[in-house]
Structure to design on (236 residues):
């Protein structure tokens, strides 16, 4: 195991991380996008992005795009490289506000979090479409880990914290259980060559209807490229 520092809330840190990784000249077979914050008070990243959208979504969007060449070079016909992005069931109630992705007009921690998780699903489906169109031996899937007992809930109100403390042993998954579907997506032979899937409890399931809107996927992708400062390859 080797550790390389990367702050997903910093575009500069992400670019530095990718440079350090590339310098090692090693293959990349699996990328799991799993960083995140939830229900944080209104705050901006160092790049000026609303924190949920900037860290949960844009950080992973930039990281994945900068590592795509390494993933494409590592994947083969019989062993595709795999991208796994962790979303949440919260995406089902999320709304994507293309004219206000930074939640400047009306900030809601719940709304901002749900939007970031919906954006991850839209991103995954668009990414798989582009990978397939390019004939790349890389698959992209999105995972719902379920309700997991982690520190992600530190910003919820005290009532929820009390309920969580009383019921976590019964209703919440352990971190190990929460990771199981991500691991399944990363290494299971059953997922070889399968992309564009939404997975829950190690099974393919249906995501929110809006996530299948290809025009919305395309518009979000194009806008995301502008926000993080990379060329939109899909525009060619």
């Amino acid at each position: 195991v080797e550790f390389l520092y990367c702050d997903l809330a910093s575009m500069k840190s992400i670019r530095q991380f990718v440079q350090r990784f590339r310098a090692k000249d090693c293959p990349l077979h699996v990328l799991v996008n799993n960083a995140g914050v939830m229900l944080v008070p209104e705050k901006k990243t160092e790049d000026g992005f609303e924190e949920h959208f900037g860290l949960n979504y844009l950080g992973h969007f930039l990281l994945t795009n900068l590592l795509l060449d390494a993933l494409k070079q590592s994947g083969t016909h019989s062993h595709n490289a795999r991208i796994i992005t962790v979303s949440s069931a919260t995406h089902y109630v999320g709304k994507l506000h293309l004219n206000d992705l930074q939640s400047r007009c009306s900030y809601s921690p719940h709304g901002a979090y749900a939007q970031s998780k919906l954006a991850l699903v839209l991103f995954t489906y668009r990414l798989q479409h582009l990978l397939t169109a390019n004939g790349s031996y890389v698959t992209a899937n999105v995972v719902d880990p379920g309700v997991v007992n982690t520190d992600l809930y530190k910003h919820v109100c005290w009532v929820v914290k009390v309920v969580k403390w009383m019921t976590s042993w019964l209703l919440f998954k352990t971190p190990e259980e929460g990771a199981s579907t991500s691991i399944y997506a990363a290494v299971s032979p059953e997922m070889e060559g399968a992309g564009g899937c939404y997975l829950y409890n190690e099974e393919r399931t249906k995501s929110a209807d809006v996530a299948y809107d290809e025009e919305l996927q395309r518009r979000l992708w194009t806008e995301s490229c502008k926000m993080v400062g990379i060329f939109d390859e899909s525009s060619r």
